[in-house]
Amino acid sequence: MTRTTLTDLDEVQLLDTTLRDGEQMPGVSLTPGEKVDVARELDAAGVHLIEAGSACTSEGEREAIRRVADEGLDATVTSFARGVKRDVDHALDCGVDGVNLVVPASDKHVETKVGSTRDEVVETTVELVEYAKDHGLWVEVLGEDGSRADLDYLDRLLGAGLDAGADRICYCDTVGAADPERTAEVVSRLAALGPTSLHTHDDLGFGLANVHAGLKAGADTVHGTVLGVGERAGNVALEEVAIALGESYGVDTVELERLYRLCRTVSEATGVALPPNKAVCGANAFAHESGIHTDGTLKDGTMYEPYPPETVGRERRLVLGKHAGRAGVKAALAEHDVAVDDDELREVVARVKELGERGKRVTDADLLAIADDVRGRERERHVELVDLSATSGGNLPTASVRLRVGDDERVASGTGAGPVDAGLEAVRAALAGDESDSGAEGAADHDGVAFDLDSYHVDAITGGTDAVVTVEVDLSRGDRSVSVSASDADITRASVVGMVDGLDRLLAAEAGAADAEPGAVADD
Is the pTM of this model over 0.85? Predict the structure, then answer.
């Protein structure tokens, strides 16, 4: 597509507030270690400014901010500060590079929230900016609820902040109430005063549209959170800002190929699942099931994708179901080094469609089982679950498994946050060939048996206390991946069976590839 012009800037800076505004999302609370992990990923992606938290919250929060500030990141690390001196002092105590000084801008906030007057807010803002600058801090002044403020007063308030020495000012659509037209009107006025940032929320679904309107009106920096996490409907999603600016307008922000990894990191830390239809990071963003779409995509990746999945660190995925066609099924089989003739392919496609018609997700394991049956082949198992026991009473859930690995039988135990976690740790320990907890986070490695658990999903498919659940897992080993589902009334058993079946498929695919290589020698 021909790119249109949005801004004269070659680069737009991003300020990430996942660790502060994002943590205000109900149910989200990050430990200091989790904040550091997220901050490292943000920095590795090239995010320019990281708001590490709100130092005025508690001593625990200050400790978390200190740890982020002590990481030696390339990004400028800041703390949220209200319009009171002690908040700036708390930020200084944390060793941050700067403060995001938030002062009331709308009359609703000036009069009702803080019980002050316009003149008093302006006077206080000037004093605090001068104080922070005198102590060597980078300062951004944010006019809270600026989208609903009187424009002449907002101009006066933020202009006074700049005159006092602030490095920049920020347009805040605090409650996501503004439309793009209002955003453009306010930002064009503020940008005439000095460097201007945008802070938008998505309550009306205008979060990203308001970012574009603000940049076109003269802003040069965008506040956002990864996945759009935040209070109410959330903040504008940082990854969506980055990909939209890069692909549509040729404007640089961060390292786009790091976006998916960044989203995964935040999802794991916050417990916020990645919506399947989410841009950039959703499971379906680069997934194709329809026969027409799959066939077109296999011929030309741009046929049904606006940009290659590799741009954001992803891979294209072919999903099989009732809409699957010959091209998609053949390509999916080829990914597992399975070749079929035309008649066999026709039968495999028919069975895949039949399975999909019953409302079932056709996993890789399902596809390979169908292909084995159609070709009249019995599959030799490489890993098989013989027995499983798990207990969740007391303070330490434990599980033990008995696996058949090749000609060996292995018994191992594991502990975890719950019986499912303990069961998976026991599998890892068994594959490591001993009865100790491997301690690996998502991976095990011994005698060449290494794997990654890429995703884990549970659905209840019947009601009641004896509900049958289906567990779906995606596993990878090297450059091979497999999706498997297993159903059982016992979620722990379903999880372990799915994990073991997935590993069995991965090892079988490797054995088949080794047999196909000329001169291949089997390992002991």
Answer: no
